[in-house]
Amino acid sequence: MKHEEFDILVVGGGHAGVEAASIAAYLGRKTALITMDLRSIARMSCNPAIGGLAKGQIVREIDVLGGIMGRFADWAGIQFKILNRSKGRSVWSPRAQVDKRLYEQGVQRHLSRLKNLTLIAAEVVNFIDARGQIEGVILSDQTRIASRNVILTCGTFLNGLIHIGRQKIRAGRMGESAANGITEALHARGFSTGRLKTGTPPRLDAATIDWSLTKPVRGDDNPVPFSYRSHNFDPPNVLCHQVYTSESVHEIIREKLIESPLYSGDIHGTGPRYCPSIEDKVYRFAHHSKHLIFLEPEWTGSRQIYANGFSTSLPEDVQLEALRKIPALKNVEFLRPGYAIEYDFIPPRQHKNTLESKALAGLFFAGQVNGTSGYEEAAAQGLVAGINAAARSAGTEPLILGRNEAYIGVLIDDLITKDTVEPYRMFTSRAEFRLLLRFSNADARLLSHAKRIHLLPQKEILFLETKQNLTRAVDACLNTSLSPDEMNPVFVRSGTKQLTQKQPARALLKRPEIRISDLPIVFPDFPADWGSWLKNEILSEAETEVKYEGYIQRQWEQVQKSRRHEKISLPAHLDYSGLLGLSNEAREKLSAIRPQTLGQAMRIQGISPADIAVLSVYLVRK
What we know:
The protein is α+β, with helices and mostly antiparallel strands. Helix content is 35%, strand content 17%. Among the domains are: 203-339, Beta Barrel (Elongation Factor Tu (Ef-tu), domain 3), CATH 2.40.30.260; 471-554, Arc Repressor Mutant, subunit A; 567-621, GidA associated domain, C-terminal subdomain (DNA polymerase, domain 1, Orthogonal Bundle). The protein is built from 20 helices and 23 strands. Strand 1, helix 1 (15-26) and strand 2 (31-35) form a beta-alpha-beta unit. Helix 2 runs parallel beside helix 12, helix 3 (69-76) crosses helix 4 (100-112) and helix 6 (247-255) packs antiparallel against helix 9 (316-323). The longest helix has 20 residues, at 375-394. The protein starts with 7 loop residues before the first strand and ends with a helix.
């Protein structure tokens, strides 16, 4: 059997797959999304939350580039919070608890209405290719579907193996079959693969928890959305709760540690260092007498509670015994135990910065198949892969984001230049230009790309242009000079030095104790239908630019210095083994990763300044 031909095929219906399919269809490409179960599209298989440190910035960037994650997170969100407000503004990050059922329903309905998108319930087991070009896929029933652009977003499904103590279940997620055949098909075409693992905590029955012994955790009273499309934003503020483990919990875990496949040797894949299991926490951080657990509802009115912080692969009875040592959970029952899952991934050093394979033209990779963890990292990759597959199909320029432009740019650059030895998770510390990459200026950073590639409807582009114009108008107001009579009452209240003569508001705002709301200035009128969060964000962004002006300028100077290396291309088939002066490690790393620019080569682990000097001399001579 043979289906009709498509411009783009997306394999997998997780967060990477839905972003890829959505944007490709929006850009007018005839697209098909192939997944084993249409009901599981956009499923939040782990925690019921979106955003967080650096991840919230990614969701804002996805929104400006035409993605859908932020929009549906706002629509399905049940609690919103800006994290890290006690620290510098470069690391402020939005996060939301989300009704996961409502989220997947909204995304599925959105995809079903896209006129250029076909949804196919099937399993891909092999590829069709010829002369180094992808030509389509083969399904498990031997049906062949033709396309010269295929995006692989298989998540944890490639030869997935679930571990619960000694019990092993071949699955991609609990209750869903693993995907077999794709890894072997890639091996046959010369791709290298690896093995990673991740885990999830047990789901608790809310009716068996003593909520009076937990600490309630509220969201922000003035919530901020992810999407600029969420004008009338008034979400609920559903409580989460927290409890702590204790030494008695840890004692049980230590006694039963050998029954965890992590420590018995049953699991061979590497797990996420920054999201350790409870076994790892107890073993590696033995000096801590307790660990925090957040109890998060998985949907509105849900009996199913996600025990965030208690990821585990211990036997089910051991999980239950340990949790029951916590007073609030002394009678707790499981709706589902925690488990670990091992899966195959494709080391992303084999990809270009467009996420297209270097070895097989037209084959793109996005999401956990590239060794990342997290919904947000997956969605960002899916969006970029979808945009670039559409560009390849249409013969137009791809989207390549710099490290100074977006966390998405940092993410992709790290993936293709650094060895993936553990599931990659985004942090603000990974971005050297993080002061430029604030969540509140994502539109200013990325709108030019959205306009060039037509990623947003004209109405939304005009809205974001209006926002930027108002930000500039607010900034211009800060040139107003203020007198001692106007400002000294403010300084008296703040206990700071008073004025003796007029000074520009901009200079006064540089004082740490002064906020933009303290200034007696009449700012421009904002459209009546804009939410208060948007006005506050514009004022806050203008204040940030003033208070951090020196630091921001310094980072821009660093950006300018680094740009010249990004413009120097390296030959795709350069024989590094024949370059005299390179270290053995450099020859090995450069031959494996094959960086596209000198800038990428500089960021590869193990490449020294001396190695870069050798490359520079070679390029000058050639």
